[in-house]
Amino acid sequence: MEYETPLFFRVMKYAADADRDVIDVVSGNPDWEPPAALRNGLREYADLEPDAFQYAPSVGLTELREEIATRRGVDVEQVIITNGTGEANYLAMARALERDRGDEILLTDPVYPYYPGKTTMLGGRQTFVATDADGQLDPAAVREAASEETAAIVVNSPNNPTGAIYPAETIRKLVAIAEEHDALLVSDEVYDHFDLEGRFASALEVESAHRIVTNGFSKSMAITGVRVGYAIFPHDLVENARSRHMLVNVSTTRPGQYAVLNALRETEPAYYERNRDLLRERVETFTDALDAVGAEYTTPQGAFYVMARFDGFPGTLENTYRLIDEAGVAGMPGEVFGESRREWLRFALVTPRIEEAAERLATYFG
Fold this sequence. Notes:
This is Aspartate aminotransferase. InterPro entries: Aminotransferase_I/II_large, AspAT/PAT-like, PyrdxlP-dep_Trfase, PyrdxlP-dep_Trfase_major. This protein has two domains: about 5-35 and about 270-365, Aspartate Aminotransferase, domain 1 (Alpha-Beta Complex); about 35-265, Aspartate Aminotransferase, domain 2. Helix content is about 40%, strand content about 15%. It contains twelve helices and 13 strands. It has helices at about 5-15, 35-45, 60-70, 85-95, 115-120, 140-145, 170-180, 240-250, 255-265, 270-290, 315-325, 355-365; strands at about 25, 80, 105-110, 125-130, 150-155, 185-190, 210-215, 230, 295, 305-310, 330, 330-335, 345-350. The strands form three sheets. Strands 2-8-7-6-5-3-4 form a seven-stranded mixed sheet, with helices on both faces. It has a four-stranded antiparallel sheet with strand order 9-10-13-12. α7 (about 170-180) links the parallel β5 and β6 (about 185-190).
């Protein structure tokens, strides 16, 4: 089986090779400072004894797992520390498929493209359920799509790419659908700290043996290069996930786990609120420019993405390259995220040049 390089990297390479200045609104790399306590943790780690630089326990540092378990209200034995949220999702989807309850993964449309990519890699097949114009998912549509072949329902809230946050009632109904079909709900909550409207509801609020929650610190602490995530499994599903994690990765970064633990213990809520305030300002700046040229767009309730549609300019890879060459703005083609948003482009508002990017788009489409 052959795998295609994700288009994110192709677009970023094209932008990097361009003959002009290009503003990157492709990648989801936060541009603000990580917590001071995280930097301090890394500095402390550099002076530890040699044994601290050897393998971490495969499931993760005990202290970090205990901290996460306490914060999330779960048993520490349910927590596996992973190589970012990406691996956490891989483990969750693999665990769903290896239960031999079916080979179908229900995904939303639009969808973060790594989910269908992982489905293919794991030997599953995708079925897509369309969301509405605001990115909301109707549980009735999920129930209609689900069948005895459904192994998992994979959702992401706050959502990439739409910025939608699913209300608590939607999450409860999705868990119930998973239970009805002996499937698993995989809830990717990596953007939970970027709830811009106070609406976020975790799947952990619903007690069930049919849900797995994944999360991490790449976005919330602005450390996408550190690679510390986690998955919370039901008790009866965690053992095989531990074994797969050990065989694939052995363990994840020990210094990174140490630093994240230090940041969790010492970072005040004000750090996260400042970043949310910054994003609210950027959303307003960016969408004001879209209003000025009559574009249709999504207003994110959470995360840090805006999808936009410009008349006569469908969201193809070719047009994405064209926007780089002619406007100096690198976004992502909507066709990457599914059939329903082929006319759209997605922009990540994690650059200090967001006002300039907005001005360039307004000039280009004005």
